Amino acid sequence: xxxxxxxxxxxxxxxxxxxxxxxxxxxxxxxxxxxxxxxxxxxxxxxxxxxxxxxxxxxxxxxxxxxxxxxxxxxxxxxxxxxxxxxxxxxxxxxxxxxxxxxxxxxxxxxxxxx
Length: 115
Prior knowledge:
Elements: H1 3-11, E1 22-30, E2 34-37, H2 39-54, E3 57-68, E4 71-82, E5 85-98, E6 104-113
Parallel strand pairs: 1-6
Antiparallel strand pairs: 1-2, 3-4, 4-5, 5-6
């Protein structure tokens, strides 16, 4: 997978596809919410989030992808439905930084939930 493909898969909740591309020293910061340090901590959180995704219908939309060197930025939206009713709607921007081995080294996520 290319850096852009890795980033897009992660941003769209296809976490398992990305695990082998995450550096052991990676950090994931969800601004104003949480921080996960190390590959295993990131995978553990992805598994929890993935379980939530399985409990709802998800509708991810990628709006923009900007790639430059070892950085990829993706912004988009995520709508979560249960019994055809909206549970939540998120506008998000994820900033990915890759190391020289094209592994994810740092993720910074900005998630704004609509009221």
